[in-house]
User: Fold this.
Amino acid sequence: MELVVELEQEDDGRWIAEIPAIPGVMVYGESRDKALRAVEALALRVFADRLENHEIDSEPVSVSFLVAA
Assistant:
């Protein structure tokens, strides 16, 4: 599974990182790198929660993050 991360810098210098394929997975970061790491961590937490609650299939899955150009 490849998830696209969209990054955008705000006028105040903060960065927004979002994974549109997972509603609600959006974070702010002081830097591009911090925003990217935070959004990836949040996405993994969402997947873990869904697995624990049997909301998604528990077949082995590989997840990779792609940064939109």
Notes: Strands lie at 2-9, 15-18, 26-29, 64-67. The domain at 2-67 is CATH 3.30.160 (Double Stranded RNA Binding Domain).
